[in-house]
Structures are given as C-alpha cells and as structure tokens.
Specification:
Blueprint: H1 9-21, E1 25-29, H2 37-45, E2 52-57, H3 60-69, E3 76-80, H4 94-98, H5 109-124, H6 133-136, E4 144-147, H7 154-161, E5 167-171, H8 180-187, E6 192-198, E7 205-210
Parallel strand pairs: 1-2, 1-4, 2-3, 4-5
Antiparallel strand pairs: 5-7, 6-7
Helix pairs in contact: 1-2
Length: about 210
C-alpha cells in the first residue's frame, strides 16, 4: 500500500489537525523511508516552537533512508527497532488475530498467516528482554501518536500510549486488524472526540483528539 501523502484525504487531515490544534510533538510508528506521513508531520510540526518528532522504523534499509533524509533536522529523532517488545504483545498465536472480533482484514487467511509467521520470526530474532521504544521511554509524552506499524502491534501500541498523548492518528482502522480495536475503544470513550474518519481511504483511517 502506498505511503500516506498530501495527495490523499488522510494525509491532508493529518496536516490540518496538527495545525488546527497547534501540536508540537509526535511519535510516528512505521515511518518507512520518511517520505510519506513523516514528511507531513515534519513540515507541520516544524511550523511551531520547539517541535519534536520520534520516527520509528524496524526495517534496516528503510531506516537508513529515513535517517539520511532527516539528518539535518536535530529535532527529528529516527529510531531503528520495534515500538514494543514481544512481552507486551496481546496476540500470542495467529488464531488470536484471525478469530478476533476486531479482524476486518479483507485478505485470504493464508496470506495473513504468512504475515504472522514473518512477524513472529522478526520478534523472535530480537535479543531476549530488550524493550521497544515505547517501553524504553515510559515518561515521554507526545501531543500526537500516529500508528501505522505492524499489522499485529497496533492495539498494544495504542494501549501503552493511551495516557501519554492528546491525539491518535490511526491508519488501517476499518478494514484491518491493526487499529480497528483502538478505533472502537476511542469511539466508546467520552474523553475522546473523533475529528476525522474515512472508511474509504486506504484501509480506513481515523483521528481522535482528547477533550
């Protein structure tokens, strides 16, 4: 799926929300090479005083391009690694994902099972006990969290960041597993306000701001 850009409605909503609310800091999970939503966040956060952007990417080649792209921006911190550790992961087997009431994926079961096996292999290859970025920095707070990382970690990233941010920007929030449960949780919480959503952009996306 293409990266999020200002050519799609979600990208424009990201930029408008940052500007409308005067947000100055963000954590982005799943930055790829930095040319998509990272660029939108950097350009809009950078309009405010003392901006900060943490951009997380687990793939080595994408991370190298990300780090090179923002090497002159001292306020953009590029992190190579996982957002969370295996011990923070809620789904423990593929059935936990596929049979979940929040599984809105429209792909064949065997294809998603293949994604899960690759994901499990990646997590198993990490040194035991090493925390992800969110766990490493429990005291760090952000205005915005944009969640667009692994299909299988979205709920736990949301769960660990819920009390640390003022705005959630959720990609793959309708026709997916990644952020579907997080969207449902925020819709039912009176402390949060839905400011934008579309089930048609990408696999659906939504933006919530804490009241």
């Amino acid at each position: 799926m293409p990266e999020i850009t200002l050519n799609d409605d979600f990208g424009r909503a990201i930029a408008q929300t940052v500007l409308n609310y005067g947000f100055r800091s963000a954590i982005e999970i799943g930055s790829w090479d930095g040319s998509g939503s990272t660029a939108i966040l950097a350009s809009t956060l950078g309009k405010h005083v003392s901006p900060r952007l943490v951009a997380i990417e687990s793939d080595r080649m994408r991370f190298e391009r990300l780090a090179e792209r923002y090497r002159r921006e001292s306020w953009v911190y590029c992190y190579h690694g996982s957002s969370i550790s295996q011990r923070s992961l809620t789904p423990q087997c593929f059935a936990d994902v596929w049979q979940s009431p929040y599984n809105g994926l429209r792909y064949p079961e065997e294809a998603v099972a293949g994604w899960w096996q690759k994901f499990v292999g990646y997590m198993a290859g990490k040194p035991g006990g090493v925390p992800g970025y969110i766990e490493e920095t429990p005291g760090e707070r952000f205005d915005v969290a944009l969640i667009d990382g692994s299909e299988f970690t979205g709920w736990d990233e949301f769960r660990l960041l819920r009390d640390r941010v003022s705005c959630f920007m959720l990609d793959d929030a309708f026709h997916a597993y990644k952020c579907t449960q997080a969207r449902a949780e925020l819709l039912s919480d009176p402390a949060w306000h839905l400011v934008w959503a579309s089930s048609y952009v990408r696999n659906g996306a939504a933006i919530f701001v804490k009241k």
